[in-house]
Specification:
Helices cover 75% and strands 0% of the residues. It folds into three domains: 198 residues, Growth Hormone, Chain: A; 57 residues; 240 residues, MFS general substrate transporter like domains (Growth Hormone, Chain: A). It is mostly helical and 508 residues long. This is MFS transporter. Belongs to the major facilitator superfamily. EmrB family. Keywords: Cell membrane, Membrane, Transmembrane, Transmembrane helix, Transport.
Length: 508
Amino acid sequence: MAGADDFPPITGARLIVAGLVLALTNFMVVLDTTIANVSVPHIAGSLGISSSQGTWIITSYAVAEAICVPLTGWLAGRFGAVRTFTWGVIGFGAFSILCGLSVSLPMLVVCRIGQGLCGGPLMPLTQTLLLRIFPKEQHGQAMGLWAMTTVVAPILGPILGGTISDSWSWHWIFFINIPVAIVCTIGAGRLLRQVETKVQAMGIDLIGLMLLVLWIGALQIMLDIGREHDWFADATIVWLAIVAAIGCAVFVAWELTDRRPVVDLRVFRHRGFTVAVLALAFTYGTFFASAVLIPQWLQATMGYTATNAGYVTAFSGVGAVIMAPVVARLVNRVDPRGLVCFGIAWLGFTALLRVHWTSGSDFWTLAIPQMLQGIGMPFFFIPVTTIALGAVAPGETASAAGVMSFLRTMAGAIGTAISTTDFANQTTVARSEIVARMHTDATATALQNNGFSLEQVRLAVERTVNQESAALAINHVFLVSAIIFALSAMLIWAARRPRRPVEAGAAH
């Protein structure tokens, strides 16, 4: 959309303020993907639900965002980019208020879905509008501003979420969006009206959209409630699986034959795109799952506050900020497949470091692998976009970027659901094995001789068993993660080297 129409240029202080409004909006939306991660135990305790049910708060937002991202182009073409952006910010702010006022899990999940639907188009639209208002010679700086908000927001998310939940209340992790949304709405109305894009009557693939919502919704509900319902031993899970499988098959068939599909699946005919997206999905799903699981483990069994858990997880962003400029310079000089392979392999190496975590690990033993992980992230995230979008025709770049964003977000949601289930199952297995081999008589006698009652002895033993079984379970999850990273690192070599450079801001 950039440069499609003639309009009076925005210059001087107005241009700087307009750029900051767009960057701040992107920061707010990206922040909400991680700010709730460390707050799940607080929310679960407040609403009287389990921590595994609490992950719905994270996955519901991610899935709603995934559904709405492919619709960004249609929304902008039908209603105008600035108008879509403005109403998206207003909706995001309104649903943030409702999230903070939620008194039950269903209400909070519904409001998080609303946040995701309104926030989904905002990331790509902030890119589009930044490229539209800044002169071409300043596109690099504009995308640098956008990239910094995208990198910094996930770093600050866990810290802000933990500090707010511990110091005030979890409700405020949503209420803090309100002043930002108000400022950005006013700024967009005053500064961006003149760069509105042309509006045209556009049809929508309504059947494809309904099929998309149907099979993704069924799949995500199945993954989220599967463990509580003993998976396929429950008829509800079986029916959800059938609906998801049939819905997905019909959706793929429909989208491949419709003239104006809501999700253009034809881009998968390009081998480089398909391989890069598969590597992205497996790697991002595994990475995002650990970002959700680690704070829960630290708070549930290691005695960490939400604030300290946020500090541990946020260290992954430090290395990413340092290495991002280096990788940006290397992308056009080195085979990006080598950079991606190194980045994913590095993530696998840091996963192996976590395999040796114990219930007695100190703060830095936990934080250093997080920091090292951040070094590898830019080596993966930046060049994989070059490989994927460089493989498709220039006219397909927007569609391909939408499909990438959709699958990346879905991979994060699915990875979270699978990893939390596997963690819970492995905790149960480890607990059973520990209990079967325990000989506590001598310990119980020694504790009782030191003044402990029998009930206190039992509680102490139970706490120790719970801590050790959770530590063994988290070790297992990261061992599996390392294997997935290793396979993904090798997979990227099945892609061809990109045939053409990719413009800054092409990916969502």
